[in-house]
Design brief:
Number of strands: 20
Radius of gyration: 22 Å
Strand content: 15-25%
Helix content: 25-40%
Structural class: alpha/beta
Oligomer: single chain
Shape: globular
Largest sheet: 9 strands, mixed
Distance between the termini: 62 Å
Number of helices: 16
């Protein structure tokens, strides 16, 4: 007896045979898929306590977002597009302006956004940039983890150390009272180890921990703390290897992959984000070391330089797609990022034959699972894998007529077409509404914590509409 059968939908399995089953079904027992096939066969061989009718819908594996940032969800458009103001808000919030309540509220908001968009697994860096990881105290990581647990999605939370020289100044709050204190590399590493000990592969394997260090560029080697940057990267990578954790770095570009090779931190469990402006040598380095890449096609980094995705793929490198969300100009809607990815590289080559939609969909499912070391558990609809499943409503004007569903879901769908979401066999979203979560409470907490953060940092002026927002072909105030 199965627990759930999803029937009468179009199964897009992303399994080894890349099956598309026009009238298909999936049987689930506990947190696992037990059968995938034509509806007639599944109903013949299985009974179930619950039947979900997927008529007019695509049945797909949950999407994987391989790179995003915790904390950003409460900062979003602050700064009005000015990078200096945006980074100022991030820098302040993630060191001296946030509380555990901030991190809990943001985690809930971001996880709820992912849930509603069909993202069942996502990577979240606990902060972002060079020196703004909130790893001075485990309380902030704990609050984030608890927030994600309350929504029910699967998460890989990346924690680690920040760029030398140290110590860095952080602050805690007791009401309106702020207390500053210095934080060393050793303290951040201890915090990261504590979080990994208590949270990695916990709660039915829904929470994972990854380690990270800042990406090292030539200017960092030439400046103060260059030797420490190398030593810190090697130490954190070594610990990650010993514990079987994914090691990731954000912002690789223009020579940093070669430096990472020289430091000795590449390999099959290393995931490089952005990876723009790579040389042919660096593409070969990724292939030879088994290093994986997450491409963020909607990010500003991809405007400034190109990630050579097609060249990496042809060299045998596994490349996934990340949202780099939430940020001033992008959400966690992975359908948007798939479409952006295809157009980005086709525009570069002036040729629409590059990156077929099936490859883009793989990059947000099975390839996303692979770069996280989870391809045996998630990323496709196969017996034995976790029942992370989404139903995409195809009976929508922009997705009709009802043919070529593998094209429609990739070219035309958006996150708001996601109708039902299951994670580990548990229904979390039904008819576009969260089942176990008070959405209004999540939104109200996010608003409250954002207002408090803005007041602590004194950055309310960063919320105003920019002078050149209207009637101009270019906002020259955004040029740094």
């Amino acid at each position: 007896m199965a627990d759930i059968i999803i029937r009468n939908g179009t199964v897009i399995a992303i399994d080894p045979e890349r099956r598309i089953i026009a009238d298909g079904a999936v049987a689930i027992t506990g947190d696992r898929i037990v059968a995938v096939g034509p509806t007639e066969e599944i109903l013949r061989d299985h009974d179930a306590r619950e039947i979900i009718d997927a008529s007019g819908m695509a049945i797909m594996p949950g999407l994987v977002d391989s790179h995003a940032h915790a904390g950003h969800g409460l900062i979003k458009t602050i700064g009005g597009g000015r990078g200096d103001l945006w980074y100022q808000a991030c820098q302040g919030a993630y060191t001296v302006g946030s509380t555990p309540e901030f991190w809990h509220a943001e985690a809930q908001l971001a996880a709820l956004e992912r849930l509603r968009f069909g993202v069942t697994t996502g990577v979240s860096l606990l902060g972002g940039g060079d020196s703004i990881m909130r790893t001075d105290d485990p309380a902030y990581g704990d609050a984030h983890m608890e927030g994600v647990l309350g929504i029910g999605t699967r998460s890989v939370v990346a924690v680690g150390t920040t760029r030398p020289p140290h110590p860095l100044t952080y602050a805690r709050w007791n009401g309106s009272l702020r207390t500053d204190y210095p934080v060393t590399f050793e303290q951040q590493l201890a915090t990261s180890l504590d979080l990994a000990d208590r949270w990695h592969r916990s709660h039915e394997d829904r929470l994972h921990v990854a380690f990270l260090t800042p990406t090292v560029h030539q200017q960092h080697l030439d400046g103060p703390g260059g030797g420490d940057a190398i030593a810190h990267s090697r130490k954190v990578k070594q610990i990650a290897e010993e514990r079987g954790l994914i090691f990731t770095q954000d912002g690789h570009t223009k020579g940093s992959v070669r430096i990472a090779r020289d430091i000795g931190i590449l390999g099959p469990r290393t995931l490089l984000s952005h990876a723009t402006g790579l040389t042919d040598e660096e593409i070969s380095i990724c292939a030879e070391t088994g290093t994986t890449v997450v491409h963020n096609p909607s990010a500003v980094a991809s405007i400034l330089a190109r990630c050579p995705v097609t060249e990496l793929l042809d060299a045998g490198v596994t490349v996934a797609i990340g949202s780099d969300a939430t940020a001033p100009d992008r959400s966690a809607d992975m359908f948007r990022h798939m479409q952006q990815c295809m157009h980005y590289h086709r525009t570069y080559f002036h040729d629409p034959s590059w990156l077929p939609p099936g490859k883009a969909l793989e990059m947000c499912t099975i390839d996303g699972a692979r770069v996280l070391g989870l391809e045996e558990e998630i990323g496709s609809l196969e017996p034995g894998k976790k029942a992370d499943i989404i139903l995409v409503d195809l009976r929508r004007p922009h997705l009709y007529p009802a043919n070529m569903p593998e094209f429609r879901v990739t070219y035309f769908a958006n996150g708001n077409d996601v109708h039902t979401v299951l994670v580990g066999g548990r229904v979390l979203l039904r008819n576009r509404e969260p089942v176990h979560v008070d959405q209004d409470a999540v939104l109200d907490a996010a608003q409250r914590e954002t207002e408090l953060m803005i007041e602590r940092l004194g950055i309310r002026d960063s919320l105003r509409t920019p002078d050149m927002f209207w009637r101009n072909s270019r906002d020259t105030n955004l040029i740094e």
